[in-house]
Amino acid sequence: MVTKYYPTQLETFRQCPLKYKYGKDPEVRDKYRQPTPQLFVGTCVHDALEVFFDITRTPMAERTEAKLDHLLRRAWAGVDLWPKRKAQRLEEREKIFGTDQEREASWGKHALNMLHRFFLVTDLKAVPFTAEQFHEAKLKSGIVVAGKIDRIDRMPDGSMKIMDYKTGKPPFKKDDASVAADDLQLSTYAIVVRKKYRSPVSRCTLIYVAHDEEVGFEPTDELLIEKAKLIEETVRAIEAEEEWAPKQNHFCPWCEYRAICPVGEKIEPADAKLDEDLDVPF
Fold first, then answer.
1. What is the pTM for the complete model shown?
2. Phi and psi at residue 180, in whole multiples of 5°?
3. Domain containing 52: what range?
4. Is 255 among the domain residues?
5. Are 76 and 68 in contact (CB under 8 A)?
């Protein structure tokens, strides 16, 4: 069986080998990785946009904001999902919100507001080449890389544009050069798409749905060669790893495995750090 490597996993290993190890252990992962409203909203927004831009499920004439809102509500309720995935969606919803309908409604309105802002600036006539599909390709080294790409558009000149929807905040560094240097996920997707479809990739873009912002870069041949080397080096490091030592980094306060990490257990959670900085008159 061929092992497939996903860019998010590679980034996790580079960030902290121990977190990578915990994430690959189903028992540990299922025990400590709990659903959050942020992730739930993100998943539902992705599902709604997938159906909205699928011309077979949402004809061009039906691409209205009311339709997009309706698709979000269907995704929230798991209506269009396969039975097993629907059960998972409803279980996540129960764990996150329970019977607190006011809190759930607040997050739902937040999601609708995201889509409202996105609707105002998006190209409603776009017909994606693929949306929310898994893609994979084998590198020259024999390593197989894969990932679920939110959206690929074929441009008028025949090139591909890769888009990744983000429901969080934009990065502090927003220029193309910084994003290209720091990113591994979109670069990996560009490598996969070029190999799979034998088409050039003209643009890799992060779309911040809630903030009307896009940031990205043009994946040059030189950049993708450099990223392919980084992928190979990271995979070789994973295959040779024996210690799985924790590596403290600025993501530690948000890590779901803090309680069982020799480094993380000594670090206060993100919420506690925010409370320390509060300076309000009430």
1. 0.90
2. -60, -40
3. 34-121
4. no
5. no
